[in-house]
Amino acid sequence: MKKSTRIFCLAILIAFSVSSHSVAGDLQAGFATRSITPDFPVSLGGYSARQQANPNVTTTVHDLCEVRTMALLSDGELFVFATLDVCLTPSDLRISCWSAIREAISTEFSRARFEFPQDHYLSAASHTHSGPGGIVKPVDAGTRMYGPIGMGVFSQELYDFVIDSVKSSAIEAIRKLEPVTIGFGLGEETRLSGNRCVSEGPIDPDVFVIKVTKTDGTLLGVVVDFAAHGVCAPDEVMEVSADHAGAFCRNLMARYEGVTVLYLNGAEGDIHPKSPTGSGGHERAADFGRFLADKVQEMLPGIAPYDVKTIFASDFQMDSPPGVGLLGMLRPPKITIGCIAFDKRAILLNVPGEMVCELGFKIKDLAKDRGFEIPAIVGLANEHMGYFVHAEGYTEENKDRWSYEKSLNPWGQRTEGIFVDLFKTALDKANDALDGVNEENNEDF
Ligand SMILES: [Zn+2]
């Protein structure tokens, strides 16, 4: 065994927690939304070209950026999924939001007992390139490298405002917890994305859907995962916008009264958004939203309730191996991934940055190899450590492809091995905790 490989293995720190319950029908869910668009001037986060704009600050809002939140309660264990219309969510922001929610829970729900460890809190960016930018602290261990590149000047006022919105959204979702059934679906959509690095190259067509229904059968909330960059509005447009994700969520929500929709992004590192009508700018975002909402609306009736026995949520961490170049020197000391599994029926694979779809396929295959039926990559999850390019992207033949993506990465050719090793560890742990659950499950459905 090579020395470097041995160090990696020893350095994998495993801290996992399992929520296990066996009483059918005791799952609860609640949803809420808050604006994260401030009423003061804000620098936009997304395009490095905007950082040279003079100044990169705007008060013009095309459409609201929001945090959309789902709370899940399973046998006393609380899970909160917060999706934010921002380009990326720094690690420091995740910890601050989680701490703020935990503190609010202890004061507002004094009689309740919620287990809410940090790995039960998912902080995911929709990857709009026109959202509030100044949320990366210069001292942030994980994401500081990307602040100056694309996220504008840090603003404490904005940072505090976003934390307050996330906390208030989570607390409302927790207040609204009610008994639900949950179902999982997987569809295919090929019209809305293209590979920006390889002409006619692969895209990830997966449309992953979590459908949450009240006990009377009415729809309560929908979580959708689909891979595409939030770049419909180009860098010269100085307007706040939630781009394709916001357009999609609003479009689908308009079709179902009282329903909240969350958008998670997938392995979108080399995937751009397309409109079947060929439109551009905000109009492309609106078209994307409409077509994806059509797809999800078509899928929803076919998604049956699934009796989840166990929710397994865990973060997995390893020491960051030696890096390459300037970003390698600035790399954070730890790499953290996560997974959230609903028995072996569905699993979210949380990636702290932007994985190209070619590597995303390999990670999803690792999950399928272990019997997880519907895996979904959650890109831009919990922090941002760069772009993650698959091993083939570094061969001589591909030296001119994924150039931009390879330049925003701390580990070079080691990248694929790092994430494959981490996800193998995570998936083996999840598998150990959940094996056998599916077989004894769902005789009612
Ligand atoms: Zn990106």
Write a structural description.
This protein has about 450 residues and is an alpha+beta fold. It contains 11 helices and 19 strands. The chain has an 8-stranded mixed β-sheet, sandwiched between helices. A hairpin with a 2-residue loop joins strand 4 (about 65-75) and strand 5 (about 75-85). It is globular, with a radius of gyration of 20 Å. Bound molecules: zinc ion. The site of zinc ion has 3 residues, from loops.
Unreliable runs, pLDDT <50, ≥5 residues?
1-24, 441-445
Count of discrete alpha- or pi-helical segments spanning 4 or more residues: 11
Shape: globular
Structural class: alpha+beta
| Tally of strands | 19
Tell me, rounded to a whole number, the average pLDDT. Answer: 91
Radius of gyration: 20 Å
Topology:
Elements: H1 3-11, E1 13-20, E2 28-35, E3 44-46, H2 48-51, E4 66-74, E5 77-84, H3 91-108, E6 121-125, E7 130-132, H4 147-151, H5 156-175, E8 178-188, E9 193-195, E10 206-214, E11 219-226, H6 243-255, E12 260-265, E13 271-273, H7 281-299, E14 310-319, H8 325-330, E15 334-342, E16 346-350, E17 354-355, H9 357-369, E18 374-378, E19 387-388, H10 403-407, H11 415-434
Parallel strand pairs: 5-6, 11-12, 16-18, 17-19
Antiparallel strand pairs: 1-14, 2-4, 2-8, 3-7, 4-5, 8-10, 9-13, 10-11, 14-15, 15-16
Helix pairs in contact: 3-5, 6-7, 9-11
